[in-house]
Amino acid sequence: MPVPLNLDAAPGVDGFAIQVYAVNRRHLKAQPIQDGTLDVLMYDGLVKDLRRDNQSFRHVWSFAADELKRFAFDTAIGVSYRLTLNWGTDKPRDDKITLIVRYRPSQGASIYSAPSSIAIPGP
User: Fold this and answer.
1) What are the structural domains, with CATH classification, of the chain?
2) In Å, how far from its chain's centre is CA 54?
3) Taking CA atoms, which of 15, 27, 50, 92 is between 20 and 30 Å from 41?
4) CA quadruple 121, 46, 18, 88: dihedral positive or negative?
5) Where are the alpha helices (DSSP H) in 1-123?
6) How far, in whole angstroms, is CA 102 from its chain's centroid?
7) Which run of H or E residues covers position 78?
8) How far apart are the first and last CA of the chain?
9) Cα–Cα distance between 107 and 101 in angstroms, integer?
10) d(CA 66, CA 51)
11) Is 74 helix (H, G, I), strand (E, B) or coil?
12) Given its phi and psi angles, is residue 50 left (phi above 0), alpha (psi -120 to 50 degrees) or beta?
């Protein structure tokens, strides 16, 4: 579950923390990401199904597999990536945002997480 954060001295939320686990049906535990790119997509408001909503993202953060190593932690359920992300000038236009994580392997189709929405409290 993403958590909204105030990352500077100015009042108000300007980012969030998120924990990502790379899971699949072949392994019991979350696995490290060895190749490709992990993207965190931020959308304004509530997004239930991007295939129907066809909404473009407000901000995207991208991490190559090598970059992710510094965010990796071993947990009881496998490798976790703990990311603290600041949206900079792409402040949400709504009081809610939806986050979707996309994994783009070096070969094959992209894999998307389920949408996760959080409220953004005012200053």
Assistant:
1) 3-119 (2.60.40)
2) 18
3) 27
4) negative
5) 50-53, 65-68
6) 8
7) strand 78-86
8) 21
9) 18
10) 30
11) strand
12) alpha
Question: b or e along 70-100 (b: 16 or more beta carbons within 10 Å of the residue's beta carbon)?
Answer: eeeeeeeebbbbebebebeeeebeeeebbbb
- Signed CA dihedral, 31, 78, 5, 112: sign only: positive
Task: Tell me the pLDDT band of 96, cut-offs 50, 70 and 90.
Answer: very high
The model's pLDDT over 4-56, given as tens digits with 9 standing for 90+, comes to 999 998 999 999 999 999 988 888 899 999 999 999 999 999 987 665 455 78
Spatial separation of the C-alpha atoms in residues 24 and 112, rounded to whole Å: 12
Contact of 59 with 42, CB cutoff 8 Å: yes
Do 16 and 5 meet the contact criterion of CB atoms below 8 Å apart?
Answer: yes
Q: Are 81 and 19 in contact (CB under 8 A)?
A: yes
Q: Are 39 and 104 in contact (CB under 8 A)?
A: yes
